[in-house]
Amino acid sequence: MVSDFKTTKKILVVDDEAVIRDVMEDYLSSEGYEVISVGNGNEALLELEEERYDALISDLMMPEMSGLELIEQINEKEFQLVTIIMTGYGTIETAVKAMKIGAYDYILKPFKMEEVLQVLKRSFEIKALKEENINLRETVNLFKVSEAIANSTDIKTILTTIVNALHEEKGADYIYLYLPNLSLVPDFEFERYSDKVKPYRDKIALDVKKIEKILLKKNSILAPGRRSSQYLQVKTDKLKAVSLYAIPIKINNLNLGFLSMISFSNRVTFTEGYRRFLSILATKTAATIENLRLIGELKDANRDLTEANKTIKENLRQTILGFARAIEQNDPYTRGHSDRVAKYAKEIAVHMTFNKDFIEEIEFAGQLHDIGKIGISHQKLNKAGKLNAPEIKMFRKHPEMGKKILEPIPFMRHLIPGVYCHHEKYDGTGYPQGLAEEGIPLMGRIIAVADTFDAMTSDRSYRKALSAQVAVEELKRNSGTQFDPEIVKAFLEVLDGKKENK
Fold it and tell me: Are the beta carbons of 80 and 269 closer than 8 angstroms?
């Protein structure tokens, strides 16, 4: 990892008395702190512009700029550090004013160095508590991000949530999500700018290739202050990079890109502590991309499989339909019978306002209703005289044979009621099961009416076709015994409608 931060806390001492500065510098250094001292507020501000400090201890009364004025300048420039005031003129009013403008504590002169250590320790504890609260808020925000990701399958929404979390949680001024091979969201805005930076967005140039190259070998890039310039060009005096952090987005050790953020504000300085939050977001980004890639592949495979199934179904459908029609082709008496039954059955279903799916199903069932006759010889089907008892028994097996033909075909099983039950009678005297009234499936009841009407109005080997009027009277006479009265009524209305339209 590329990093420039040290764990030793840095203290900046500001006092116009050299002896105070020397004493503070010697003692705090001996306690393990890195200490720099300056003689006035202006020098302190220059030092803070150049280096990052954890704490500032400043005298209250100094020429050119007082300690309170220095803290106000620090607040205005958004430097993030512990500020402590030293004063020999301690009053409650001074203490209150110092706290109001953001000082963590104050020290009364003359003081013992042990007191300075205690104040520093207490101030760092307060700062740590604030950071702990920030971390807690970070955890809550991560949970919200995770929840948003879990509840969405739209990659644009997910990536926007991730980038917004960076902006809102970490206060980055410039965020760049680099995913060069992501084509799932071509219109996604992979860059985010704070209001401060937005007017100068064209002046910022991130060295993407250099960052990408380093992150192939490193787990992250952490570059404060001037060191960020090796990854970033800013072509304006209005902005000065304070900190840069970048972390790779990986799937199975394969780099997909990176997530980076840059601060142009002293109040936001990225540290090693940001790694956890960024790592989690980078991991979630990678997981999101991988999941959506897999979903995409699954959808493509499913689409191909669906198309293949449709082709197989249609081929099998046409094959079965071909068998049904083949039975009729060699018989001049029944040729076209199944197509006409299908047409009548469909007209009945349409008139009774059944849904589209049922209308399609009843039409197909009508075309296949006699497919079981494939097991009956041509001579028996076209016998001129009456059938004898064994022949009648054999003939009555065709609904069962039709059922057996369709049962092994999953997408045709729903047609079985029309094929198997079209010879059932409303009064329960039909075959093959002797079902009655509503116990007869709807398909069977509809096809029974359509089948009988076409059989009566077609030439058969044993008789000439009956007129439509005679056939209608037969339907009326057997309504309620052989046929469902409601279906007979609907079919007669269909026939009357045809007469009216002629």
Answer: yes
Domain co-membership, 400 together with 479: yes
Give the DSSP H/E element, type plus range, for residue 254: strand 254-263
Tell me the β-bridge partners of 437: none
Assess whether 121 and 172 both reside in one domain.
no
**Which residue from 159, 113, 134, 160 is spatially nearest to 13, judged by alpha carbons?**
113
Q: CA-CA distance, 43 to 70, in Å (whole number)?
A: 10
Kindly tell me if the per-residue pLDDT of 441 is higher than 90: yes
Residue-range definition of the domain harbouring residue 114: 10-132
Of 175, 242, 177, 233, residue with least CA distance to 206? 233
Distance CA 245, CA 261 (A): 5
Residues 470 and 107: their CA atoms lie apart, in Å, by 118
**Alpha-carbon dihedral sign for residues 303, 306, 308, 310:** negative
- List, as own/partner pairs, every contact residues 32-36 make where C-beta atoms lie below 8 angstroms and the sequence separation is at least 24, other chains included: 32/8, 33/8, 33/9, 34/6, 34/8, 34/9, 34/10, 35/10, 35/11, 36/10, 36/11, 36/12
Q: How far apart are CA 264 and CA 323, in angstroms?
A: 79
Q: What are phi and psi of 61, to 5 degrees?
A: -100, 110
HSE-up of residue 104 (Cα within 13 Å, Cβ side): 24
Going by their DSSP bridges, the two strands 221-224 and 232-234 should be labelled as: unpaired
145-166 burial code (b ≥16 CB/10 A, e <16): beebbeeeeebeebbbbbbebb
Task: Tell me: do 389 and 457 sit in the same domain.
Answer: yes
Q: Phi, psi (5° rounding) for residue 321?
A: -65, -35
d(CA 470, CA 239): 98
CATH code for the domain of 380? 1.10.3210.10
Q: How far is CA 244 from CA 50, 260, 414, in A?
A: 15, 7, 65
DSSP 55-94: EEEEESS-SSS-HHHHHHHHHHHT--SEEEEEESS--HHH
Cα-based distances in Å from 292 to 175, 179, 243, 397:
23, 14, 33, 54
* Number of domains within the chain: 3
d(CA 344, CA 337): 11
Distances (CA, A) of 184 to 153, 175, 192, 396: 12, 20, 19, 61
For 244, the token pair is: 């840069």
Condensed to tens digits (0 to 9), the pLDDT of residues 307-362 reads 877 777 777 677 777 766 666 665 655 678 888 999 999 999 999 999 999 999 99
Q: Is residue 92 included in any domain, yes or no?
A: yes
pLDDT tens for residues 271-294?
666 677 777 777 777 777 777 777
pLDDT (tens digit, 9 = 90+) per residue, 149-182? Answer: 666 667 777 777 777 777 666 668 888 888 877 6
Q: 127 and 210 share a domain?
A: no
